[in-house]
Hints:
Blueprint: E1 9-10, E2 28-29, H1 39-45, E3 51-55, H2 58-61, H3 77-88, E4 96-100, H4 101-106, H5 108-118, H6 131-134, H7 139-144, H8 163-172, H9 176-182, H10 209-236
Parallel strand pairs: 1-2, 3-4
Amino acid sequence: MVACYRIDHHCEHERSLFKEKIRFGGVTCTKHPHEVQYAGGALRANKNLYFIYMVRDPRDVVVSRHANFPGAYFTGLDFYLRAERCASRLADHPRFIVVRYEDLVRSPDSVQEFLERRLPFLERLHRFSEFHLHAKVSQDSSQALNGVRPPDAKSIGGWRNHLPRVSAQLRKFPAANDVLIRYGYEQSTKWTEILPPANDQDALSVISEREGLKNAFRMKWKVIRRTSRYWLRLKAK
């Protein structure tokens, strides 16, 4: 977004919307994976706020790696499903925009045109397909993304090379099948016939479920506290 549109203010890496200075005039862009849990309250508070919610095949999500943790799976389906429960309640909101990762990497310019219809105030500078030629990212972002590269569909379907991991995660979180069908990744649960028996060891992630559950309880209080403070900051302006 920052590389391809005229953005007046933005965070360098992941930073909460609620920690950014509220500015009136111009376009501000922030990004944080937990922010969907606050989206409902934030959208009610700020009529000029838009959320872009990135969806990806959950099977590919749970087999992804982080450069800081080589050889380990980074996150499990528990966080994914908590985010999805929040997103599903906002599916019809006009300022909550869902984009599939797979569509973005396969047809970046088509997704860009879709976003421009939903966000008509954006001023285009470059095409999404040329993002890598113009992006200037922070060191943290570059490390998390394993460098800047053009949109590439090669990562789609990588979960097929990690079937034991997918099997273990799906056994613990069978609700993921509903997400696969909802977003058109599968037509039914028949695909699970290719999965081997699940192994508890393959279910382990860098971000543990226990840690994620503790964070989820904290989030319930943060949602109320942060959206209330955000609303007050807006009113104060």
